Amino acid sequence: MLVRPYVIFLLVVASLVVLTLPGLIEAQLVNGFYASHGCPKAESIIKSAVITAIHQNSANAPGLLRIFFHDCIVNGCDASVLIDSPSEKDAIPNQTLHGFAVIDTAKAQVEEVCPGIVSCADIVALAAETSVAITSGGRVSWEVPTGRRDGLVSSAAAALAAIPRPTDTVATITSKFAARGLSVEQMVALSGAHTIGLAHCSAFSNRLSPTLDSTLASPLAQSLLKLCPSGSNNTTNLDVTTPTKFDAAYFRNLQVGLGLLTSDAELQSDGSTSGFVSANTNFNTFAANFISSMIAMGNVEVLTGTAGQIRANCHQFNS
């Protein structure tokens, strides 16, 4: 079943969202911004570039989705995560990000058609949605409100402080999302992005040593112990049952001890989040919650109008 009919109202509201929380920048995004701002083919060009890249390397899908999260959770969705060192890229959580080349390709292609109009921040947001649409088999997609401009600051220290870590407790992650104006329910839904992608042994080694985490299902625990001997930094799937499909299996996994990271497992064990985990085991519920939460995150502290800039090169601030 397609999710679009369930979220028409959400999409209409999203185009009118104005953030007024303390410390956040008031801004408005609109659906189809570039259709009336000098680049009507922008979205189709970007999506085509992303689709091609994912077909060439399926790992690009979770990579692009992760770039979006790591961008928006710091200074808002301003493409600050794309800036080359010294920048947010130097923060430990960002050192395993990948998919930047896909953003570069999309930017280059859109610049050929309408130079100086499309922001890197909007490319990041559109690439994340396309990644979800592809890996869900078209079952989860939405119209991305656009009109963002690119930020002028990129700080490794800010990224390190803001990005949730795999060993964080629910309380810590909740606080980090709340700082961006996002609720506990939205945090849980967005955690469902772990239905695709990989994690290095270092991200969950705390559950294996010095004491084996008793909440890990025994078969998974034994498998991880073999995969991750001391000093190893191999990778494994975040979703151990359907690792390449964007679906609700991640939440069902949490209920039976198959969450990989501490931050995953605690969503089930913490009373403030376990109810949301249960609700999201239903695919249609998860899809609708994820879409609305992605739109909300995509509106966090965005720069619009004359704020910020439209970068010529996503990796560098304009001179």
From TrEMBL:
Its EC number is 1.11.1.7. It is found in: Secreted. InterPro entries: Haem_peroxidase, Haem_peroxidase_sf, Peroxidase_pln, Peroxidases_AS, Secretory_peroxidase. It comes from the Eukaryota. The keyword Protein transport does not apply. Its cofactor is heme b; Ca(2+). Keywords: Calcium, Disulfide bond, Heme, Hydrogen peroxide, Iron, Metal-binding, Oxidoreductase, Peroxidase, Secreted, Signal. Binds 1 heme b (iron(II)-protoporphyrin IX) group per subunit. Binds 2 calcium ions per subunit. Residues 28-318 form the Plant heme peroxidase family profile domain. It catalyses: 2 a phenolic donor + H2O2 = 2 a phenolic radical donor + 2 H2O. CDD domains: secretory_peroxidase. Residues 1-27 form the signal peptide. The keyword Secreted applies. Removal of H(2)O(2), oxidation of toxic reductants, biosynthesis and degradation of lignin, suberization, auxin catabolism, response to environmental stresses such as wounding, pathogen attack and oxidative stress. Belongs to the peroxidase family. Classical plant (class III) peroxidase subfamily. This is Peroxidase. It comes from Sphagnum jensenii. The lineage of its organism: Eukaryota, Viridiplantae, Streptophyta, Embryophyta, Bryophyta.
